[in-house]
Design goal:
By secondary structure, the chain is an all-alpha fold. The protein is 59% helix and 0% strand.
Length: 98
């Protein structure tokens, strides 16, 4: 959560009505909901692309980036193969790999 609507309203001049039933409060509330949706979506994308949180097809797409093919349906073993392949080829520890 970035800010609450009340925190956003506190940034506005006192000239504007800060009552929850005012138009400006409603606009700030809608804006806040959009910001939170974007923030939550960004967090999900980071989690989905991190090897430790990826599952199924998403993990298959990450494996394809590292030229690793899935030998069976075991996600943990595929994570191991991705890390192993990266260590062999890259010889470095990447942020999402380690």
């Amino acid at each position: 959560m970035l800010y609450t609507t009340d925190q956003m309203m506190a940034e506005l001049a006192q000239h504007w009505s800060h009552q929850p039933d005012s138009v400006i409060y409603g606009m700030m509330d809608e804006l806040n909901q959009m910001f939170e949706f974007g923030s939550d979506l960004g967090s999900k994308i980071v989690d989905w692309t991190a090897i430790d949180y990826a599952e199924g097809t998403t993990l298959d797409m990450i494996a394809a980036q590292y030229q690793v093919s899935r030998p069976d349906s075991d996600d943990d073993f595929l994570r191991f193969l991705i890390r192993l392949n990266c260590q062999i080829k890259c010889n470095t520890t990447l942020k999402n790999i380690s």
